[in-house]
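From the shared-data thread, chain only:
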Amino acid sequence: MDQQMMAGYAPSAPTARMENHGPSIAKIAMQSGNDLFARSGSMIAYEGYIQYESNHSSLRQSAAGRITGESVPLMRCTGDGVLYLADYGANVVCVPLQNENISVNATNVLAFDAQLTWGVQRVKGVAKFAGQGLFNFGISGTGWVAVTSRGMPIVVDCAQTDETCVDPDALVAWSTSLQMKGKRSFKASSLIGRGSGEAYQIAFSGRGFVIVQPSEDSTDRLNGQQH
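Structure, as tokens:
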């Protein structure tokens, strides 16, 4: 095979615990004692010696998640080497947490460090009235998290602006340290969102970030809540 042609696709040596290999693949540097939880079925390749197993505690939390509609099927990954994860070609964002707490839609969770605290949590503030449901998947502590997005996402540092307004159906994740409030816009109802009548947004402010995808999946979310 032409080595020059391969050069643009060959993996490079990891420079962080978690990083991207292209827009749709998460590359994780695995070390013994530094385990990872990953979405079941997301492994596409690995180098070195890496094992996968179901984790009983995660299965119990997943069972609780099924009751709330925020179940995440997980596998525990251990070993030494480099692990590659993907989820049906979705874009991937790797996020380092520094003693932080984020709230993520369960369908967007790809992987996270096993030492992080995680589980289903009740959504606080106005999000529960804006299409997000009553529960979400919470991850907190210091470590790495990989989330997926339907298309190239926007990651907004809310500390750089007075207020960041987001269509709730396009919202992937947010720092729970942010202040949230609901906003309705009558004049923009034909431009924002997919529903008729007044448009509804969530306004974030404070120190933290939000991740927004270029896709509104309210139909999928509503179907999931009905089953």
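The helical segments are 3-7, 56-68, 218-226.
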